Amino acid sequence: MVDAEQSDLCRAHIVAAEMIHSLFLINNTGDIFLEKHWKSVISRSTPHHYLISVYRGKLFLLSVIQSEVPPLFVIEFLHRVADTIQDYFGECTENVIKDNVVIVYELLEEMLDNGFPLATESNVLKEMIRPPNILRSVVNTLTGSSNVGDTLPTGQLSNVPWRRVGVKYTNNEAYFDVIEEIDAIIDKSGTTVFAEIQGVIEACVRLSGMPDLTLSFMNPRLLDDVSFHPCVRFKRWEAEHVLSFIPPDGNFNLMTYHVNSQNLVAIPVYVKQNISFFDSGSCGRLDITIGPKQTMGKTVECLSVTIPMPKTVLNANLTATHGSYTFDLATKVLIWDIGKLNPQKLPNLKGTLSIQSGVPKPEENPSLSIGLKIQQLAISGLKVNRLDMYGEKYKPFKGVKYLTKAGKFLVRT
Amino acid sequence: MGVVCFDVKKLVYVYLVRYAEEQQDLALLSISTFQRGLKDPNQLIRASALRVLSSIRVTIIVPIMMLAIKEAASDMSPYVRKTAAHAIPKLYSLDPEQKDQLIEVIEKLLADKTTLVAGSVVMAFEEVCPERIDLIHKNYRKLCNLLIDVEEWGQVVIINMLTRYARTQFLNPNINESLLEEGNTEGKTFYPSDEEEDEDEDEKEKEEKKAEAMAKRKPYVMDPDHRLLLRNTKPLLQSRNAAVVMAVAQLYFHLAPKAEVGVIAKALVRLLRSHSEVQFVVLQNVATMTIKRRGMFEPYLKSFYIRSTDPTQIKILKLEVLTNLANESNISTILREFQTYIKSMDKDFVAATIQAIGRCATNIGEVRDTCLNGLVQLLSNRDELVVAESVVVIKKLLQMQPEKHSDIIKHMAKLIDNIQVPMARASILWLIGEYCEHVPKIAPDVLRKMAKSFTNEEDIVKLQILNLAAKLYLTNSKQTKLLTQYVLNLAKYDQNYDIRDRARFIRQLIVPTEKSGALSKYAKKLFLALKPAPVLESPFKDRDHFQLGSLSHLLNAKAGGYQELPEWPESAPDPSVRNVEVPEWSKCSAREKRKEKKVDKPFYSDSDGESGPTESADSESNSGSGSDSGSASDVSASASESEESEEGSESDEEEDKDEPKHNKKKLQDMKKPTHNTESEQSSEEEKKPQRKPKTRKMSESESESEESDSESSESESDESDSEPEIRKKKKVDPKASKPVKKEAKKESKKEMSLLDLDDFEPAPSPQVTPVNFMSSSLVTDLEGLSLSDDVLAPATISPSSSMKSFELLHRITGEGLSVEYCFSRQPFSPDANMVSVQLHFTNNSSSDVSALHVEDAKLQSGMRVKEFPEIEALAAGDTTTAVMGIDFCDSTQAANFQLCTNSKKFLVSIQPPVGELMRPVFMTENEFKKEQGQLMGMNEITEKLTLDSHCRNEHAIVQRVTTAANLSRVPCGADHECRFAARTVTGNSLVLVTVAIKQEAAQVTVNCDKMLIGTMLVKEILQALAQ
User: Fold this and answer.
1) Residues 6 or more apart from B81 whose CB is under 8 A from it?
2) I need a surface site. Which of A172, B287, B480, B1012 has the fewest CB within 10 A?
């Protein structure tokens, strides 16, 4: 009650304190190692503020807001900050940020003005603030020139805000990776409780000038739900089911899609498992076999099984016919790394688990997370038909790659 | 500040802004540099100077800032104007006194037509003067149209603002439903899927109420501007930005008619795959939505299944959603799923699951016993937390029907020895006390045990022991008198004053002494009163009074600066306030289509390159932005010049750009030489630069400097310029209007356009059955004749009395003119994709009505209208009939248009029943089965009903079904089964209907790949059969 009254009073004083006020970067141990204020400075002990944070790569990005603002707006922006840092420096960690603190500050300055996002497109930012590279940093130290673009950015002003102008490459190439992840829940008996495919088309486009691309699929009707990079013309998709767009320069996610009719989702492997704990004696038994199910004739690679064991499991004494296993004594996570799946000789992991004595046996059997990769296959059957380029004269080099991965692939036991 | 190095300069800015407030004097030294920067010829330097200047929080420079902002607001460069918009809230927070002046600037910037500025100025508006909703009126349509091209962050702000705006300006589209809801005590929604939940009586009652409400119902016509907003925000559901998707979702939730809200479900479910923070927020909102609109998330039930890897918070929210979604049909699946959750290692989650089971049990009577048994089994679980939670939930469930479950109470009484969790112990004691009559032998024994351990119990347990003692004393004083007194004595010296107090109170009340007051007579009534069973409610109930997606909604508390979402107005405020002087919304409906496309076009346009409002993607591809942005940054270049050159290049390049389309066009040209020139002309008219000056005059206020964006209004007004010309032509030769329509068709249906060589030829539709009045062959025969609009003349139509007619215009509102419409179910020969609508005009007035025609159709995207030929005159007391065609795009959205006479205009709307959106097709039994096999699963909708005695024969059923929907019967070998087939008029999707009869019961199955149509059709048929 008191709080509410105070905030009423406060509102009278704090007028127009909207959107994102400040940003704090906090590391895993809880120390603030970078702060940026877009409005008046906020002290680190802040009453009467709302905090929204996201967790990325062992860092918390925490923003301070003072009044109503859509929370997703802030969350999405914070992720965009993390994405940008990752895009610039390859990763988003405390060390990297500390090493590049000047650029990070410059970026933050450009990304937000008075709490309202200004330039969040990577292409625009890169024009204003060049990402570091070794050659340039050597040259810069020798010549004393700077990292900030000499020319003023035009991206902000162009009608295609996501693309730089005057892009030039000697090798013009456009690559598209169709990556699909299978999310599934398989129950004890092996039946599929839930399965869907999340797909993303990652593009790497290095084309000169202002190319206008059209990407068409053999079977676009497969796609249940789609979301696009802002460059994609939605009306064309609605009408013809083709992707028509002027690409940003460099790497970007062209679209994400979703296939959720369960009968369309092929489950590439089956898992036979038996994990049991005994009432008498402090031990349990584990026996897991994995075999191929619907692999469309491709090889399953990078197969792995992750099992978070109950806390009472002390150790595991197992033998694996393929690959190797590790059991982390602290986190109690058993990881079995199989590698390539050989359909002739199915991999098996078998042995005993020792359990803390004196405590009742664990009630629930842990569920298994499966990891796998299948190269050159989009499990939904999606196929790119062709890529056409308009607007430029040269012949680009084009390539499409398919990859299927396990997403949240869970086997309940 | 004289530093040359840009890098250092920037860092100095950062430093300056950060410390200016603390070192005011020093900061002031820099001001003159920025003032100089404001005059720089380079727009970027101007913008950046303004940005830094406005960020310096020193009150002395407020006048300087104000001046700078005012100047920048009328800068040539949109980028500088954008920066000015950003500076407004900064200045406002520094000195709120400036509000009035700032509002003037905002007003000015709101009128800006560039996408770059729109987002920022609305943000400023929201911060400075969100209450000045009147400033939005004139800009409303523009904002709606620009929305899709505004950058992501601006979209969020604009959508949220427009949501509030719409709530003040339009009528509640669900007004009729909400009437019903009020009458319905259970507060259930009227989503189709919910309806079966109720028992039959309920249903009948509901139907009656519904019928009543229908009778009372004022015809609701959605304001076209309201529709515009819904239409233009819908594509944004496909945005990659979660905030934008959420903003659109909340807009639909708060503003859309119930039947349309469903579209947001898919997009929201998509967001569930994003980062866990996003998931958290989205799930909170979904949880709120599922309470009011359960139906829309039901198809996505499985997406809310919980994985053991989810964080606990997410798990609990998903559980909440699953619980809200539970109904009779899916409860078994959900309970099976819950079963696996109970074994989870995450105990908080298990506890939440048990509560969820409890809620399902209270909400769905059928599974109450199953749930209860399941929970009782959990009582033997080894984990104490699970047991405790179960006890608490069982207690609540038992309260609903205790007499049936005395064995469970006994079982729980035994548990008291083992369970240590205070809440659970307290619950058991309460249960035993409350229902001591059901367990007369056990209860005193429990009290004995508790008396022994009293001193070691937690406070809540002690209170319940006292309660138990009191109740037993009242019912069974012989056995428990001493025990009770012992307990009361113990409590008298307890450390907790609550317990001492309670003991004193109970003693006075139940132990008769000479002093005891009048109350003790009523002790039994007080203690053993029948208690109503608790209602287990979702914590998300009623959260929707906060705008969804807002921080306040997330916190379930009002955050500072939260703008309350206004209630719908009782009657709509004047819609004309949104009219802009420039006739942006031209009147001729024939052109409507083309314009609509243009409105949406800028971004996702079909690349046939007509000049769109903002030209973002397309013009770039054509003219190359090099020159474009070059001219923009070159201040000295005349803006109007660059504009024209841009356009020129555009239309040039259009030709060689899209090869296939070009060819197609050629093809048409060859086939249709006469129409060719027409269409060329009409499309070119928009591009002709020399037409420009005309419009300029009309919109003098428009600053010449406005870049490509100003084209939007211009090209629109171009159209309206050319309009009279076209109309003239139309009168001379009805064919003249065709090219325009044709073009529209080409846009909406690419595949069709190659086949569609002549407008008069109906699209080849082999499915047309002999049932149709006018077979396709007849139409082709007629085609040879110069078949103009007069095919539609009343003469060819046999008005059928069996057709249900609807009122289009009442004679009072129509000032004597009354119009009714009905669906004649004949193929609309000029365009097979249209539904033909027969209009019946009656002139009840004493004077003649002349020049009856249709104007100004404002339609959902994709919808088209072919208006009836103008009726020259209708004498007083006379009646006449006309036919028009409407392409409803397979949706039951109303088509709104104006019915005009020589002197008056009436806004009318035609809303098709779903059954009229299809045309019958003939099929054999085998074909039917084959097609049906392909439309299973989600595409199949089944409903059961009980048939009245008078419609149990096949004949009656066939008649009712075919009256309800335009279906043709499919022969069927099996007895007691009727089959029907049709195709939707626009999409050509198959609609298969099966009615299986088993004596009184019948089952209606609809297979259609358009789920919405399927669901609605089932409802319609059910209604028809139940009559």
Assistant:
1) B72, B73, B74, B75, B109, B112, B114, B116, B117
2) B1012
Chain A residues whose CB is inside 8 A of the B621 CB are 210, 212, 246, 390-391
**Sign (positive/negative) of CA torsion B591, B595, B596, B601?**
positive
> Which residues touch B700 (CB under 8 Å, ≥6 apart)?
none
The span from the CA of A67 to the CA of A364, in Å, is 44
| A262: confidence class by pLDDT, cuts 50, 70, 90 | low
Please write down the HEC assignment for all residues of chain A.
Answer: CHHHHHHHHHHHHCCCCCCEEEEEEECCCCCEEEEEECCCCCCCCCCCCEEEEEEECCEEEEEEECCCCCHHHHHHHHHHHHHHHHHHHCCCCHHHHHHCHHHHHHHHHHHEECCEECCCCHHHHHHHECCCCHHHHHHHHHHCCCCECCCCCCCCCCCCCCCCCCCCCCCCEEEEEEEEEEEEEECCCCCEEEEEEEEEEEEEEECCCCCEEEEEECCHHHCCEEEECCCECHHHHHHHCEEEECCCCEEEEEEEEEECCHHHCCCCEEEEEEEEECCCCCEEEEEEEEEECCCCCCCCEEEEEEEECCCCEEEEEEEECCCEEEEECCCCEEEEEEECCCCCCCCEEEEEEEECCCCCCCCCCCCEEEEEEEECCCCCCCCEEEEEEECCCCCCEEEEEEEEEEEEEEECC
Q: Classify residue B573 by its DSSP letter.
A: P
**Six-digit token string for B292:** 């009011």
Q: Which helix (H) or strand (E) holds B851?
A: strand B849-858
Beta strands in B323-395 (DSSP E): none
Which residue, B317, B313, B390, B398, is CA-closest to B355? Answer: B390
Q: Does B6 touch chain A (CB under 8 A)?
A: yes
Burial track B191-207 (b if 16+ CB lie within 10 A, e otherwise): bbbebbbeeeeebeebe
The beta-carbon neighbor of B621 closest among A40, A54, A391 is A391
C-alpha–C-alpha distance, residues B333 and B571, integer Å: 45
Q: How far is CA B293 from each of CA B325, B454, B780, B787, rounded to the nearest angstrom?
A: 9, 49, 48, 50
Residue of B nearest to A409 (CA): B307
Q: What percent of chain A has pLDDT over 70?
A: 85
Mean local confidence (pLDDT), A164-186: 88
- Which residue of chain A has the CA closest to B114? A159
How close, in Å, is residue B486 to chain A by CA atoms?
Answer: 39
Residue type, A168: K
Q: Name the residue facing B89 among A10, A16, A245 (closest C-beta).
A: A16
Instruction: Tell me the whole-structure pTM to 2 decimals.
Output: 0.64
Interchain CB distance below 8 Å, A18 and B340:
no
Q: How far apart are CA B334 and CA B370, in angstroms?
A: 13
Q: What is the mean pLDDT of each run of 10 residues along chain B (1027 residues)?
A: 58 76 78 84 83 84 90 88 90 88 91 87 89 88 88 91 90 70 41 41 52 57 87 89 93 89 89 89 92 85 88 91 89 87 84 89 82 80 77 81 76 81 85 84 89 90 91 85 90 91 87 68 79 75 83 83 83 79 44 38 37 37 38 38 41 42 44 43 44 43 41 41 44 44 42 35 39 39 36 37 72 80 80 82 80 76 79 80 83 80 81 84 80 78 79 78 84 77 84 83 84 83 81
The tokens describing B485, both together, are 């007194």
Q: Residue for token digits 């399941």? A: B374
For residue B208, what pLDDT is reported?
55
**Residues within 8 A of A (CB atoms), B 443-482 only:** none
Minimum Cα–Cα distance from A154: chain B residue: B629
Q: SS3 of B508, please?
A: helix
ipTM score for this prediction:
0.86
